[in-house]
Amino acid sequence: MDIPQGLFCQSCGMPMSKPEDFGTNADGGKNEDYCSNCFRNGAFTNPSITLPEMIEFCAGFSKDMGMTPEAAHAMLTEFLPTLKRWKQ
Ligand SMILES: [Zn+2]
Q1: Model confidence over 31-62: pLDDT tens digits?
Q2: Phi/psi at 29 (nearest 5 deg)?
Q3: What is the CA angle 37-42-44, rounded to 5?
Q4: Span from the CA of 23 to the centroid of ligand 1 (angstroms)
Q5: Domain segments of the chain: what residues?
Q6: Of 35, 53, 55, the residue nearest 45 (C-alpha)
Q7: In a 3-state reduction of DSSP, which class is residue 16?
Q8: pLDDT tens track for 60-78
Q9: In angstroms, rounded to a whole number, what is the distance separating the alpha carbons of residues 72 and 48?
Q10: Ligand 1 centre from 14 Cα, in Å?
Q11: pTM to 2 decimals?
Q12: Burial class (CB within 10 angstroms; exposed 0-12, middle 13-18, buried 19+) of 51
């Protein structure tokens, strides 16, 4: 499987390259761990989402990833648990 290169969101796995891709800290600064969908103004936008829910949510973007939903689901099931937000 392909692990994205460079910086990617430690919550949903989205690659982050443009400044607007990055989340923001409470002080308005750039947060390099999480994307703007997951983390804004120093807090998770959906603090109660579970790992299985995040996998389902991200698998919905399988077309953008150039994958079938099944392949995306399998990749995310392996990949997301390695990210900072989900690592125990
Ligand atoms: Zn994210």
Answers
A1: 999 999 999 999 999 999 999 999 999 999 99
A2: -75, 165
A3: 45
A4: 8
A5: 19-82
A6: 35
A7: coil
A8: 999 988 999 999 999 999 9
A9: 23
A10: 6
A11: 0.86
A12: middle
